[in-house]
């Protein structure tokens, strides 16, 4: 009897231990989330679950997206390639469905080929399907995005179902496949232009009031407009404050959702072999935020929690990291190589991001990140490229003679409507720039974020910074060539790409 008991115990400890997949990934991406969490010192918004995760994570203070737009950003997360290289130039939805190139070898594709179970719950917003395959998918393609992206009870149950399916698929409990689960919340995105009945940030959806339905696991948190912290790039007006208070309520739902997802991970027994990454796709949907390559449009929260790297848990890293690093990080975690192949038929594709796992051991000296934006909505053509090196941010606004375009969702937001009204009627806007300055930008914008954190003073024309400008321009161009950017010669030359790729001058006065 004792022998059998000992054998059983041995089986529990060893057989299951060995059979248990050793390394998994849970990637959590929020939608338009920023620094509205006490992890980043906003003490007003209640985000205890993000706080708890951060205590087991390395907290990146300088994480950036390469593109401040949903689908393009998600495509870079899932391919490691900037939008101009993977082809997802703008938003994937509706009749304007931008897609990545058919030949792109995405992260889910590579993981699937390596027999890793892939799952997505929430907002997918990238395509085409064959480039982004998932074994288990509950997304806006087949469900209501409110349900799979904002109903945290539904999300919890889907995550539970994923873990159950992971067990069932593998049949014998001894042979579980490692997994990659991507939970893409739709919170705290705006919804004023699509579902205004739920409030500007869908903050009323599921709150139990009449007509709002109920999300059983959600305990809504409310904030008053005079309580909120107005970021310095947002006009400080009553309208903006009320808008931010609504955003906070939705951030609190996101936080509770993250808590539920992490609890499912724990309950399924995967806490100690799963790499957890939390970030967001782009800047918050406020003036100077989303769709901009200014810091306020591209800086992202980022937490990485590894059960195998406990040395720096709870610490803050100053290293410059990019959402382009997520694919190389996850490949590194699974010890998978990036394949050698070409998209355009020319040079082999190179990942310009890097694995972030070394940062979990000691602080690296990574000081440069790049960005590349071409469109948001189909009409919003405004190509920009940027490099952020140490304290300097350089932006190249290629089509700077056009007014900066505005998206539908942001246009109807209370903050922007108020800004338009105040500008039209000549009242003080409470903003740090005028609408005219916002629409009409210089071709080159160079900022020193040490003395000018809000990026107001353009140094591009200052002779004292001529050398900095020259060196950053050269660095940016080098990255554009390396990532096969079709816009590399814009706006004053034409790229002749065949034979010997080169820029041929247009003499157009730019
Ligand atoms: C929060 O504030 C403290 C004190 O000023 C600072 O040391 C820390 O870096 C801040 N944390 C983040 C994530 O910005
Ligand atoms: C959220 O999902 C749960 C579980 O599917 C459901 O019972 C509830 O009615 C949903 N709430 C809303 C507001 O749709
Ligand atoms: C995970 O590790 C922690 C700390 O070592 C331990 O307390 C916990 O029981 C472990 N959980 C599982 C499911 O093995
Ligand atoms: C802006 O002005 C319009 C027209 O006068 C008005 O209907 C709207 O409520 C105002 N919006 C804000 C946010 O002040």
From TrEMBL:
User: One biological-process term from Gene Ontology?
Assistant: heparan sulfate proteoglycan catabolic process
State a single Pfam family of this protein: Sulfatase
Q: Locate the Sulfatase N-terminal domain: which residues?
A: 23-334
* Keyword Hydrolase assigned: yes
- InterPro entries, per the entry: Alkaline_phosphatase_core_sf, Sulfatase_CS, Sulfatase_N
Write out the coiled-coil annotation as residue ranges: none
Source organism superkingdom: Eukaryota
Keywords, alphabetical: Glycoprotein, Hydrolase, Signal
Signal sequence: where? 1-21
Q: Which GO terms describe its molecular function?
A: N-sulfoglucosamine sulfohydrolase activity
Q: Which SUPFAM superfamilies match?
A: Alkaline phosphatase-like
* Cofactors demanded by this protein: Ca(2+)
Say if the entry is tagged with keyword Glycoprotein: yes
Protein family (similarity comment): Belongs to the sulfatase family.
* Full protein name: N-sulfoglucosamine sulfohydrolase
* Natural source organism: Triplophysa rosa
């Amino acid at each position: 009897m004792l022998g059998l008991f000992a054998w059983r115990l041995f089986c529990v400890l060893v057989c299951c231990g060995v059979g248990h997949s050793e390394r998994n990934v849970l990637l959590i991406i929020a939608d338009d989330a920023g620094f509205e969490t006490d992890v980043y010192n906003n003490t007003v918004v209640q985000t205890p679950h993000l706080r708890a995760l951060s205590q087991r994570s390395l907290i990146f203070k300088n994480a950036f997206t390469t593109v401040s737009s949903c689908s393009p950003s998600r495509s870079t997360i899932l391919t490691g390639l900037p939008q101009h290289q993977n082809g997802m130039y703008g938003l994937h939805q509706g009749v304007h469905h931008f897609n990545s190139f058919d030949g792109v070898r995405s992260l889910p594709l590579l993981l699937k080929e390596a027999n890793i179970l892939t799952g997505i719950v929430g907002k997918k917003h990238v395509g085409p399907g064959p480039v982004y395959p998932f074994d288990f998918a509950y997304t806006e393609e087949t469900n209501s995005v409110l349900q799979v992206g904002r109903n945290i009870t539904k999300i919890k149950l889907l995550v539970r179902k994923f873990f159950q399916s992971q067990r069932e698929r593998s049949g014998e409990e001894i042979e579980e496949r490692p997994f990659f689960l991507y939970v893409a919340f739709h919170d705290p995105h705006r919804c004023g232009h699509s579902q205004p009945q739920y409030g500007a940030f869908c903050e009323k959806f599921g709150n139990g009031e009449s007509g709002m339905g109920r999300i059983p696991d959600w305990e809504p948190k409310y904030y008053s407009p005079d309580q909120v912290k107005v970021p310095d790039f947002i006009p400080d007006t009553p309208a903006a404050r009320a808008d931010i208070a609504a955003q906070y309520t939705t951030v609190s739902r996101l936080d509770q959702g993250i808590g539920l997802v992490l609890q499912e991970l724990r309950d399924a027994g995967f806490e100690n072999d799963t790499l957890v990454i939390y970030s967001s796709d782009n800047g918050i949907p406020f003036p100077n935020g989303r769709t901009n390559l200014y810091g306020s449009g591209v800086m992202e929260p980022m937490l990485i929690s590894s059960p195998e790297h406990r040395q720096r848990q709870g610490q803050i890293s100053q290293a410059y990291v990019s959402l382009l690093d997520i694919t190389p990080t996850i490949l590194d975690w699974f010890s998978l190589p990036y394949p050698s192949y070409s998209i355009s038929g020319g040079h082999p594709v190179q990942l310009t991001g890097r694995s972030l796992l070394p940062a979990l051991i000691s602080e690296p000296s990574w000081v440069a990140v790049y960005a590349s934006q071409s469109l948001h909505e189909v009409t919003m053509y405004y190509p920009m490229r940027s490099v952020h090196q140490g304290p300097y941010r350089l932006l190249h606004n290629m089509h700077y003679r056009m007014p900066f375009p505005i998206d539908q969702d942001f246009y109807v937001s209370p903050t922007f409507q108020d800004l338009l009204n105040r500008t039209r009627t000549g009242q003080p806007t409470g903003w740090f720039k005028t609408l005219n300055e916002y629409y009409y930008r210089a071709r080159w914008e160079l900022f020193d974020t040490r003395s000018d954190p809000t990026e107001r003073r353009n140094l591009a024309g200052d002779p004292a910074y001529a050398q900095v400008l020259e060196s950053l321009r050269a660095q940016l161009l080098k990255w554009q060539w390396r990532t096969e950017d079709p816009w590399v010669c814009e706006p004053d030359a034409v790229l002749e790409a065949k034979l010997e790729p080169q820029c041929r001058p247009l003499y157009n006065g730019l």
